Amino acid sequence: MAGLTIDNVTKIFEDDDGEIVAIDDVSIDVADEEFLVLVGPSGCGKSTLLRMIAGLETVTSGTISLGDEIINDVKPQYLDVAMVFQSYALYPHMSVRGNMAFGLEESTALSDDEIDQQVTESAEMMEIADLLDRKPSELSGGQQQRVALGRAIVRDPEVFLMDEPLANLDAKLRAQMRTELQRLQEDLGVTTIYVTHDQTEAMTMGDRIAILNDGRLQQIGDPLTCYHQPANQFVAGFIGEPAMNFFAMDVEGDRLVGERFEYPLTDALGAAVEGRDAVTFGIRPEDIRFGGAAGEHAFEMDVDVVEPKGDENIVHLRLADADDEYGAHVSEERSPDAFVATISGMESVEAGESIVATIPPTAIHLFDATTGEAIH
Ligand code: ATP
User: Fold this and answer.
1) Would the CB of 42 count as within 6 Å of ligand 1?
2) What residues in the chain have per-residue pLDDT under 50?
3) Domains, the chain, ranges and CATH?
4) Residues of the signal sequence (predicted)?
């Protein structure tokens, strides 16, 4: 078993229009037996980084090491890693048994009996032993996905590389497979790098998560640290569902002044904004409290739209004295007087109702207005 080190790695693609920097000076240490999730929006470079580790893509600069060995130029077939793709990539003309045995036949000196035994063991682990003689076309999506995982397990690799392996499954199966995969990874103790664009998947599966945007590493840490102490506005907005509310605010004396509301500073917030003219103010939907009387940090708001989710309600709010200039309602671009809050599904609130919403000073996040770096 081995850890994996990604050291100052950059990947530049050249095409007719010029250069695309897909990965920009990324360094990550993945510990032996760790489950690391690489997460970020579409196009941020996740697959490119994974493919470089797998030897499927060249490294422009920097080094990738498995244990003590630099593997930049090692061909995929000589690397002790197993990759699982979203597309499963099973050979359609081979049986499940054939698919699972293929890698072993190619790369090991095991006898047919030994290969058969390993395939059977891995198939039992993935609960597909009764499907060994079927062709991929005779399997459901979920079963094909198990075969793809079984094929990775049977090789007993030092590292698993998984590129959105659950993306094609329906929500229920995906949730079930997440748990199963985690248990499997723990049992096998194989260092795993798992790529997803789904922040929920990242939060629930990873020992640590590495968040990428525009080819750059934004933050790496355990999921709760990234949630509670985001390194910058990108991470704050990416982790958490619904996304954090953000407002551009000027610093004026002992208060923050936004386009549509003012927020008195506490000592702690005042210290954080000292010497600044402007900040970005952030509050998570789940930190907004309903009820009580209007006050310094409590605002009268109108309920615009309620989205019931069962266990919770997502509530779209607007400041009560707002006119219709910003008729944003449920839109991607939130207007400067619109908030999203979540409350328990047990609490009932209806569109058109007037409520008081408290924005607790202890729950406020502040970011540099220009760089987006977290300052509080
Ligand atoms: P997704 O979640 O959509 O798969 P991703 O985060 O995995 O996205 P990559 O596929 O790694 O992103 O792509 C990163 C960037 O590199 C993108 O801008 C993409 O267009 C570019 N890119 C990827 N492969 C190539 C290639 N072979 N040639 C040129 N550009 C490429």
Assistant:
1) yes
2) 326-332
3) 4-238 (3.40.50.300), 245-368 (2.40.50.140)
4) none
